[in-house]
Amino acid sequence: MSIILLITVILLCIGSFFTFVGSIGIVRMPDVYNRIHSETLCVVGGSILVFIAIAIYGITLSELSSIPFGIKALLIAGFLFVTNPVGSHAIARAAHKSRARLYSETKVDELEEFEK
């Protein structure tokens, strides 16, 4: 087994683990704000690591046709890394403006205090 294949397998396993844990969090979390946190874990910890593994494997293959495939995977990972926080923030703001209920044990709502 080559070192590149080992790195790819490790990244895929870590990415799959983060996606699994984040998916459980989406189901188990009590309110929309905590679910957004779990969704971010799925994308940043899971999907991006999987795309990086695909890129590493694609770029290091000896076939020239796989290099653009690896570069595209890196571009997708970068796009997800930039757009996911923006999307999560927009969803959280929309949920707050629509008065989505907070978890009963939430003690502080700093955005509510800021908007007064």
TrEMBL record:
On whether Lyase is a keyword of this UniProt record, the answer is no
User: What keywords tag this UniProt record?
Assistant: Membrane, Transmembrane, Transmembrane helix
Q: Which GO terms describe its molecular function?
A: sodium:proton antiporter activity
For this UniProt entry, which segments traverse the membrane? 6-27, 39-59, 71-92
Query: One Pfam family from the UniProt entry?
Result: PhaG_MnhG_YufB
Task: Write down what this protein is called.
Answer: Cation:proton antiporter
